[in-house]
Amino acid sequence: MTAVRQRRDYRGSGSLEAWVWQIVVNEARRLAREPQPEALDAASEPTGNGHFEDPFDLRVWIAALPARQREALFLRYYADLEYRAIADVLGIEVGTVSATLSAAHQTLRKRLEEVRR
After folding, report:
1. pLDDT tens digits for 34-87?
2. How far apart are alpha carbons 74 and 85 in whole angstroms?
3. d(CA 61, CA 92)
4. Sequence-ordered strand ranges (E) for the chain
5. 61: CB partners within 8 A, 6+ apart
6. I need a labelling partner for 35 at 20 to 30 A (CA). Which of 1, 14, 63, 117 fits?
């Protein structure tokens, strides 16, 4: 809805897709600053699709990452954006996108290795 309301703000520089995803990221950041109701005990409650939570707590691991790493992971693997578009959305350099994703992967890989022991 925000993208529709702000459609006149799009200047045509950069991709339209990156502009829309930037709105999505900004809205998510805004919502993250608001107080949230207490979370349910995810270990005992099924998810919306009837499955129980991942035994590796991947969602918890991702939530524990720094904001930029979480956002970069989301934009790369959920939104399927290329590094240039991610850089545009986050306002960082392409090389920083690569380093950010690498750091996130390294942290998640380390957590997985700890669980496997």
Report:
1. 776 654 444 445 555 555 555 667 888 999 999 999 999 999 999 999 999 999
2. 13
3. 24
4. none
5. 107, 108, 111
6. 1
